Amino acid sequence: LQKSTAITALGTAAEASPEHLAELRAAYVKRHPYLEAFVADQGTALVQVEVTSYIVVGPFQQVREVVLPKG
């Protein structure tokens, strides 16, 4: 465990907008083709996350926050 690193992404999450849904589903299935039926299911929602910062905890409990530029 002394060599492990944990990363937490912080930001705002929302269900993908209908105008982007087809494009996002295609990208998801391209990366995870075995989940095609899951993504196509009516009960599945794709969520977009706008990450604003990352909290990185490294060895010896060293903590850093990486804040992304807005925009």
What does this protein structure show overall?
The chain is an alpha+beta fold and 71 residues long. Helices cover 27% and strands 37% of the residues. It is built from 2 helices and 3 strands; from the N terminus they run E-H-H-E-E. It has helices spanning 18-31, 36-40, and strands at residues 6-15, 47-57, 63-67. The protein has a 3-stranded antiparallel sheet with strand order 1-2-3, with no helix packed on it. A hairpin with a 5-residue loop joins strand 2 (47-57) and strand 3 (63-67). The model has no long low-confidence stretch (mean pLDDT 92).
Keywords:
3-stranded antiparallel β-sheet; single chain; alpha+beta; 71 residues
Concise synopsis of the structure shown:
The protein is α+β, with helices and mostly antiparallel strands. About 25% of the residues lie in helices and about 35% in strands.
Number of helices: 2
What best-fitting shape do the alpha-carbon axes yield? elongated
State the distance separating the first and last CA atoms: 36 Å
Rounded to the nearest angstrom, the radius of gyration is 16 Å
Helix residue percentage: 25-40%
- In percent, how much strand structure appears in the residues? 35-45%
- Which structural class best describes the helix and strand composition? alpha+beta
Instruction: Report the biggest beta sheet as strand number plus sense, adding barrel if it closes.
Output: 3 strands, antiparallel
Question: What is the N-to-C order of secondary-structure elements (H for helix, E for strand)?
Answer: EHHEE
Could you report the average pLDDT, rounded to the nearest whole number? 92
Q: Poorly predicted ranges (pLDDT <50, ≥5 residues)? A: none
| Number of extended strands | 3
Strand order of the largest sheet: 1-2-3
